[in-house]
Amino acid sequence: MMRSPRHDMMIQGRLEQPPPTIWEGDVRATILTGLAARDNQSSVVQVFARKDFRRWRYKTDVYVDGVRIFFDMPWKKIQTFQGVTLRNPPRNMNQSEIDIMFTTGVGIRIQESRGILNIIVALPEDYKEISVRELNQPIFDSSAWNIFLFQQPLNFRSFMIVQMAWSRIHCLEGDELTTPDCVTLQTNYPQTENDAKSVYYNFGEKWRLERNLHLSKLFQTEHKPIYDPLNWSFADPRYMPIFDPWRNTNYTIFESFVFNREEVRVSCQGVPSCEFDYLVTGRREIAWKHWTMRKN
């Protein structure tokens, strides 16, 4: 979320626990399956991934102000609504790639793969951070602007957030991981287990919409989660994700029938998020898709 005298942008994500592994084990991580966005007084855009058996024709469901739209005709590839334009590449007929372009200059690119959404957000120059001391005037410095609001690569990460908002409300310049009370978290990449726990408990958990009731919810209640809509087990406060998939305590004998850990190291070539995906799901195709996106 970005709120200033000139901007009122809100981006919310829906994260879900994916289906069990092929050996019927729980995947203690989340995937991004939905996104809702609005900038100033624009229409609300919602994009959802679809379940496996529903992906034979369309990969995503797209709604604008609650009305479902399609991009499967040449004249529907670019559609304009109040304050926002949606675009689908001409040769993409399954709605797996959606570009959201707000009139303020904010752009969101959504790519779907195997029921997971990859999100990239691009911001114009006038969305630089706002200082508490100079709230009415944006901070312009001579250095290159490197604020990257939100990028969710195609993978499973240890952020168990049902619906979350990224925020820079009245906060000073600082790290990307800023809590609602303007405390910034420092973390390294690749993350250690303690770093992952700190980000999960001190950042992600604090940004649950259910704990920030003053924020408006952009998701409509009729659009339920695609996996286990009646029982959001990962939303249970007692739920604990995997922070380090390499630990022996996270090992199960059944995974040895599907892959071995040396195969994970060779396939992922040292990319931590790829290794995480491979280890918790046992699916090389998911890990490889993420690896290619990271390399590109």
Helix content: 10-25%
Please work out how many helical segments DSSP would assign: 4
Query: What would the average pLDDT be, to the nearest integer?
Result: 79
Large-scale geometry: globular
Question: H/E order of the elements?
Answer: EEEEEEEEEEEEEHHHH
Distance between the amino and carboxyl termini: 27 Å
Strand content: 15-25%
Q: What can be said about this structure in brief?
A:
Residues 261-287 form the Mucin-4-like C8-3 domain. This protein has 4 helices and 13 strands.
How would you characterize the overall build of this protein?
InterPro entries: C8-3_MUC4, Epithelial_Barrier/Signaling. Keywords: Disulfide bond, Membrane. The protein is α+β, with helices and mostly antiparallel strands and about 300 residues long. Helices cover about 15% and strands about 20% of the residues. It is built from four helices and 13 strands. Strands 1, 2, 3, 4, 5, 6 and 13 form a seven-stranded antiparallel sheet that branches. Helix 2 (about 260-270) runs antiparallel to helix 3 and helix 3 (about 270-280) packs antiparallel against helix 4 (about 285-295). Mean pLDDT is about 80; it is low at about 130-170.
